[in-house]
Amino acid sequence: MLPSDTPQRPSFGEALRFWTKLGFISFGGPAGQIAIMHRELVEQRRWIGEERFLHALNFCMLLPGPEAQQLATYIGWLLHRTAGGLVAGGLFVLPSIFILMALSYVYAAYGTVGALAGVLGGFKPVVVALVIEAVLRIGGRAIKQPEHWALAAAAFAGIYLLHLPFPLIVAAAAVCGLLLPRRTAPAPTVATQTAVLDDAAALPAHAQPSARRAWRILAIGAGLWLAPLLVVGACFGWGSLYLQVYRFFSGAALITFGGAYAVLAYVTQAATTSYGWLTHAQAVDGLALAETTPGPLIMVLQFVGFLAGWQQHGALSPLASAVLAALLTTYATFLPCFVFVLVGAPYIEQVRGRSGIAAALSGVTAAVVGVVLNLALVFGAAVLWPHGLAGGVDWFAVGLAGAAFVALYRWHLSAAWVVLAGGLVGALRATL
User: Fold this and answer.
1) pLDDT by residue, tens only, the chain of 432 residues
2) What's the number of domains the chain is made of?
3) With contact defined as beta carbons under 8 Å apart, do 71 and 37 qualify?
4) 251-281: string of b/e by CB count within 10 Å (b at 16+)?
5) Residue 215 forms part of a structural domain
6) Adjacent-strand bridge partners of 197
7) Cα end-to-end distance, the chain, whole Å
8) Structural domain for 279, as ranges
């Protein structure tokens, strides 16, 4: 399509085909997924203008939850109202639910057997490299002024040394971001481009803010959250593992700022100590499996729920218990994402060009650097010193982690391919 062409508004069916395709090709974590959507939706299909895309992305980065999935929901809503948002966000996640469920079962049932154990042994050092690379990548984007270094250091000390709750760290960082002196930067020059939803186009009729509509969505969302709570409580008891899982991940969904790496630090801290659902090593395994599947990386939480149900299955079979806990985890994790976008998007469309939201976000993203650094240390210790400091270093893990880091940070290879390569190396080592 030439730049001078006038793009045609996509039909609902055409958009449905694209969102289905996106759900199966969205590898590479949030950065890769956002890049795919930008290339497809802004540059090639021209369904949305550059400025509108970036404005929607900034809003989704401020929200708790996976920003790439929420961005898909936002754009789907802009194009085809509420149904478009539900389809876009739902199909972004759906393939990964089934793929990761199958991988979780294989891991839980056969994870310590022969070559499969070797595959997981190759995955783990790569995950350490991924988290270290994430610290540098997020830090490069988040540390924009000297005060941000102090915020990152304070967040690291808060979670690593003082074991402060993650929500408290996020809230404090947002307040500090608003209070920090703001340094103005020249606005980037963005080339104008004709699009279905061009930057200068008027708001679609359905994008006009309405308090009545917002309260209706909030009420529906509350009902959709309450229904599983009542059913699970009535069927399994109000103190059951499944209700515990549902409540915990419902709370986590509201404070998952900073992406999957940041929330995994919080979830790992609680799941390994307070609840005893899994170990640090198993959390590393789950992140590796999530890296090899399409969809948002936050799907690693489904793995945590699966293992919780598998290992504390009670009267149910391990598989039935694990599937139930995993589905409850995924439902609780993503339900708020749809509510946040569908309620907030009309109001955010009204305030394009204002910078107040960005100030709070700058504080949160700086703190996330410290939180992810904590995750790197926890995971690194579990993988590189598997038997504790007295047990010596696993030099195979050190070498593989170093090679994976070079591939990711220097050569910019896809995370999924690097993880798969690590698994292949681990399998060869186990069989030779």
Assistant:
1) 445 566 788 999 999 999 998 898 786 567 668 877 888 898 888 899 887 887 788 788 778 888 889 999 999 999 999 999 999 999 999 999 998 999 899 999 887 666 777 887 888 888 788 878 878 877 776 677 888 889 989 989 998 888 787 778 878 888 888 887 766 544 444 444 477 777 667 777 788 888 999 999 999 999 999 999 999 999 999 999 999 999 999 998 987 766 666 777 788 888 888 898 998 888 888 887 887 788 888 899 999 999 999 999 988 999 999 999 999 999 999 999 999 999 999 988 877 655 566 677 677 778 878 877 887 887 788 788 987 778 889 999 999 999 999 998 889 887 778 888 988 998 898 887
2) 1
3) yes
4) ebbebbbbbbbbbbbbbbbbbbeebebbebe
5) yes
6) 48
7) 53
8) 12-180+209-431
Distance CA 238, CA 235 (A): 9
295 lies in a domain?
A: yes
Per 3-state DSSP, the chain is made up of helix, strand and coil in percentages (nearest 5) of 75, 0, 25
Assess if residue 282 is contained within a domain: yes
Specify the pTM: 0.76
Distance of CA 383 to the CA centre of its chain: 23
Q: Among 251, 272, 275, which residue's Cα sits nearest to residue 378? A: 272
Picking from 351, 62, 337, the residue whose alpha carbon sits closest to that of residue 178 is: 62
For residues 359 and 144, the answer to whether their CB atoms sit within 8 Å is no
Classify residue 48: in a domain, yes or no.
yes
Helix (H) or strand (E) holding 259: helix 259-269
3-state secondary structure 265-314: HHHHHHHHHHCCCCCHHHHHHHHHHHHCCCCCHHHHHHHHHHHHHHHCCC
Under 8 Å between Cβ of 291 and 91: no
Identify any residues that bridge with 48 across adjacent strands, giving them in sequence order: 197
Residue type at position 134: A
Burial of 369: CB neighbours in 10 Å, binned 0-12, 13-18, 19+: buried
Dihedral sign of CA atoms 174, 176, 181, 185 in order? negative
Whole-angstrom distance, CA of residue 297 vs CA of residue 290: 6
